[in-house]
Specification:
This protein is an alpha+beta fold. It contains four helices and 14 strands. The longest helix has 20 residues, at about 105-125.
Amino acid sequence: MRGGEVSGRWKRRSWFQPPGRVSRLADRHASPRAVALAAVLAVGIGAALPAAAGCLDGVTVPIEASLEAEAAAPGTTATTLRSADGARLRLAGVAEPLAALGRQAAASDAVGAARAALARWLAAPGLAAAIGQAADRHGRWPARLSDGDGRDLATRLVEAGLAPARPTADAPGCAARLYPAEAAARAARRGIWADAAFWPLAARAEGDADSRRGAYVLIEARIHSIRRGDGVTFVNFGADFRRDFTALFPHKGRNRGAFVEPPHSRDIGREVRVRGVVGGANALSVRIESPEQWEWSGP
């Protein structure tokens, strides 16, 4: 569950390159605008600071380009940022409230609150960033941002209850570090956690099960059964596969993210918290692509 430790500022190849090497980004998933932002950020490379261990290791550099939260639109969220040159960053380790709730009015309020908070923090001087090594399919680069006082912006969002933590394969370690802050916000019913629609779900989806598909959810349930299939292991939280949630563990070599060892038969009956986007044509399933999506409750 914990991201790997970082030894050395350049243990992995960082997205940030000295100005003479920025052009190499064009050979990867970087748009010309993202390359332009890299060049702007690289001006401050001499003042680089060590990155937080376990989340986008490499270096943290001062940001010398203005950033603002994107307006809500298809494929964008309150946690997506755009530079003056049009390059796009995504706060690593957090989920957009819009994807965690089915009721649009409440979701819009949550997104608005998150965007307003980000606008205040982004306007303050001294912003710094560590950037991931590849953009996602929307052209957004995972980023860990901190303000002039060294406070992490994702942590501030989660502490205020303005966003849940969300692990992704392109930013390992960035979500797990936020789980204590999320748990405290949820217990205090701050922000989105004041609305029961954001609370963790049980094994069975109540109401319209189809409305859950495409939503980012937390599930707290006990393992009912485990079945190994062709290329995937099914971890079922109930007997009715059409109404009860299932976690899918792709076998090694078939996962888009990191391979995650599925639980064993001896784990049947154990309670677990699962995070992910609900999919499945006939069943309600969550694909496990990161060990951070799976949290055992107790021994």
